[in-house]
Amino acid sequence: MAFVTPPHPRRNRVDPFGDLHAVAARGLFTGNRGCLVDEQRRLVRHHTGNLWITCLTEFRAHHHELDAPRHWTPLFFLDEAVALAAGHRPCAYCRRADYRSYRDALAAAGALPRTESAATLNRVLAGERLRVGRGLHRAKDRRTHRISASTVADGVVIIVDDVPHLVLDGQIRPFSFEGWGQPRHRPSGTVTVVTPPTSVAALTGGYRPVLHPSAIT
Fold this sequence. Notes:
Elements: E1 11-14, E2 20-22, E3 29-32, E4 53-55, E5 75-77, H1 80-86, E6 89-90, H2 96-108, H3 118-129, E7 145-148, E8 157-160, E9 163-168, E10 171-174, E11 184-185, E12 190-193, H4 197-204
Parallel strand pairs: 4-6
Antiparallel strand pairs: 1-2, 3-4, 3-5, 7-12, 8-9, 8-12, 9-10, 10-11
């Protein structure tokens, strides 16, 4: 897959809440949640349907327009932790091995049987993402949940001081579109989690997301 860089940033960069922003840097992954533009190529919707996937930015020399009417609209993520937090899962086509690892991790965590279909997984994730179903959403529309900080797996995104933070190696790092910030001590007690429960289960069951280099420097 290949994309032509437009002269001005499009509103196609995704934050951990799933909101769309006009930011120049693309990040490590692209993604798909249906056609988000109208016939005039204007962004008019947040998603269509419940198929939200995370894809490779290059795959078998495929080319795809950034805003083609009646075709899926490419979105971009800093890394896979952001994509999972936003409610996406690995693509079963261009990331087949990662999709299987995600599904196997869910089974290991006791969340879903290994034989469960992708369609069922899509429906489950859809029910965990948003409080409302239409329009161009904002962070306030996201479903969150509370769990004990001591049980949060690496790769989960939590909210601290109203800012998304990545949990990794006993620390947390604040999100920005350029990368994860300086590490802080991991909080104690109960924390607010933005990563959907199903993806939290996958991370708990051993799924290892691809992280931006800033997460480990």
